[in-house]
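call fold(seq) -> tokens
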Amino acid sequence: MANAFSYSDGAVREDLLDILTNLSPTDTQLITGLATSKAMAQRHEWLTDTLSDVKTNAFAEGANATQHAVTSPTRLINYTQISRQGFQVSDTERAVNTANFNDRYNYEAEKAMKMIKNDMELAVLRGSLACGAAAVTGQCKGIKNWLSLVTSQSGISLSETTFNDYLQNVWNVGTEVNAAYMGITLKRRIASWTGAATAKNTEVNDKRLVNTVSIYEADAAKIVKLFAHRHVNESVNNDIVGINEDLFRVAYLRKPFNKDIPSSADGKVGEIISEYTLECLQPWGGFLGEKHL
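ret:
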């Protein structure tokens, strides 16, 4: 019996859904979640200071005023980094009838914006400082290279005790971690801790815990948001980064924008451009735990 729905029949229309699926990751917790500020030059600078150590402070009635040494603020710097993502679409591609999008140029512009945000996320987390002078491309210093509290575990499994030690190291210098970023291996390990099982008993409408641990409470840190991050791990190491997010900001000299590029070709060329850097208001405001199993 002949198949009435044979695709050899030229009268049968194709079955093409108006759905386009892109599984490429677009997790940009830092670029999306950190506060922003304004950079005014490629060399971006700010000040940091500290208080004197706590001391016994008691004077006799009527005693003369005493003089104490005054510490000067320290100037910190970072350089802006230019990120660019180009795209080109022919006029034919813009004219034909396509599924899912009406204008291929607009679709490619949206896709380029997602790609540049991914690249910026990598720079903000793991960038190495480079001055944009003497034919050297400027690069911003990322969070991992800003942190002063760095501990190498050399293949030791991340335990709950070790994690709390990290939190306490930051508490000891005067602040608290409120966000931790790690690969999926360490994220799952934290979810398996005995203490973490209790943390799962959270109201459903909180939406921060869904069959996993996304919030951790400790003696040295009231609330630590836990993020599985794709760029924390370097090589085969399982690193974990904890920061006080209030001490880190993305400073924009030029926020991401779409620039049309003049072209004599039969088509349209565009480019997403952004110029930015990272402000680390206090390098002691977080920890980096390296090389866990």
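The chain has a mean pLDDT of 84.
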